[in-house]
Amino acid sequence: MKIGKHELRLERRLAPLAGGDAAKISLVAILVGLALFSIIFILADVNPLSAYKTLFSYAFTSPYGLSATANRFVYLLLCTLAFIIPFRAGLWNIGMTGQLYFGALGAFGVLYAFTGAWAPPTPDPGVSSGLVILLMILVAALCGAGFAAIAGFLKGRFNVNEIVTTIMLNFIALWFVRYMIFGGGPFMNPGGRSESFNVPPSARLSSISVGDVSIPLTIFLAIGIAVLLYFLFTKTKLGYQIKAFGHNPTAARYSGVSPLKITLLVFIIGGMIAGLAGYHYFGGPGGSGYNKIQRNFYLIGDLAFYGIVCGLISLGNPLSAIPVSLFFGGLTTGTRYIQGQFHMAFGLDYALLGVLMILLVAFQFFSRYRIVWTKKLKGGG
């Protein structure tokens, strides 16, 4: 584009920005998103500065808000990591929702196998907490992995589009959970309510108290998985094969990489991590979620899709996913709080997250391209 004596053109970068430069682009996108969303506050007669101050102070400094942020952070980080590992192989895992539902059902299945459903006023059965908690975690991971393996096998063996498959599997999981908790299934609450039975206190993983802040022990599991995935991608032969397959499947195949093996493996690992997200939210540490599966369980499943955007924003880097997930975990907590504090309409949190995510993804364009402003030379066309 020519403007007077200057020329404006779009130029592709030799390599996509990474590290600090990519972080700067994300920061600009966030600031632009917050500025645009201020219009919503102004229309609601709310001072944007007061709203944002209340949002961030509640989510990251108040004891109760920080506890909620920590729990939401663990959930989002696990969902993000479940997306990242297939993404590095050039595949899209849109099925974290179904996988985490099956992970939650697996955890509840362990409790049911040990004690059956509890009917009030039956007391806490006092199950051996260490063994049951370990089994809940393992079975949740295995159930998520098994459910994800369906999409991985169909993609690797028959080249069935994994996006279509995982979306269809999400609906299968949703209706299966619905049956299990209030459609006549064995996990129904004996009191007749539209929810599952409660996880007894003896079968809940403990939380750490730091002052008045409660931090779930699953936070170490989530961060540990992020570190292991980073090590996998940067230091191992398998990680190199996954990345090579993602960059060029045909070349990777000629070098001896099995498409079926890689596709099945990344979906199984992604499903395991998503299953752990289901355990954390529905049956994990006290206060992390409901400690039961409620009628509106699908809402927390919808939140799993934010893991896709967090994965894209972090550019598939497991370590970068940690601060990104923490930020969005705080936003989901803080916006829900100011929604009531300023008497604003329901759904404010989803609207703000939606605006930010659209802009964050859109601004990734500038990690691959740059705008060049040059002065035309004399005699130039």
From TrEMBL:
It comes from the Archaea. Coiled coil: none annotated. Keywords: Cell membrane, Membrane, Transmembrane, Transmembrane helix. GO terms for molecular function: transmembrane transporter activity. The chain crosses the membrane at residues 21-44, 64-87, 99-119, 131-154, 166-188, 208-233, 262-283, 303-328, 348-366. It is found in: Cell membrane. InterPro entries: ABC_transp_permease. The keyword Transmembrane helix applies. It is a multi-pass membrane protein. GO terms for cellular component: plasma membrane. Its main location: membrane. The keyword Signal does not apply. This is ABC transporter permease. It comes from candidate division MSBL1 archaeon SCGC-AAA261F17.
